[in-house]
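Tip: read the tokens left to right.
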């Protein structure tokens, strides 16, 4: 039961992080501008590169013809296929960037569910739920990785 609460917490925490981007707001008194919306969430790291891999499946001619990229076409095989495969499964139901964010969210849910199960099964913590909540925010970079389109969870 606690694992279900943990997964709900992960989902709500991710939605809370995405909220300013979805609302396209500018926070008063902060130097953060969310007015570009969801574009900010998937433009960082290798997100666009994984979308290109998902659309072309490493076909050099398609990469050069269909996308204007600064990297040579030989650069894209450096992106492993699992993350683009998950995006491709979700792509028929939603557009690429949204599918990418959802795949990252699914990876987060799987990660925290497995972390909680590991702690509980091997009795490594008196309360795996609370340790999993701490793991959700520490290290702080982990919060950012889970909020954008990035393959680090896979």
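Filled-in amino acids:
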């Amino acid at each position: 039961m606690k694992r279900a609460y943990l997964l709900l917490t992960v989902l709500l925490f991710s939605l809370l992080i995405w909220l300013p981007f979805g609302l396209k707001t500018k926070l008063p008194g902060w130097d953060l501008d969310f007015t570009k919306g969801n574009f900010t969430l998937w433009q960082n790291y290798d997100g666009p590169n994984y979308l290109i891999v998902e659309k072309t499946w490493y076909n050099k001619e398609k990469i050069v013809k269909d996308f204007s990229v600064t990297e040579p076409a030989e650069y894209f095989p450096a992106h492993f296929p699992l993350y683009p495969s998950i995006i491709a499964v979700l792509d028929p139901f939603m557009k690429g960037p949204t599918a990418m964010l959802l795949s990252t969210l699914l990876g987060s849910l799987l990660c925290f569910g497995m972390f909680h199960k590991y702690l509980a099964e091997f009795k490594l913590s008196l309360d795996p739920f609370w340790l999993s909540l701490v793991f959700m925010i520490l290290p702080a970079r982990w919060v950012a990785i889970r909020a954008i389109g990035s393959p680090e969870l896979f």
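Residues 50 and 84 are 6 Å apart (CA to CA). The radius of gyration is 17 Å.
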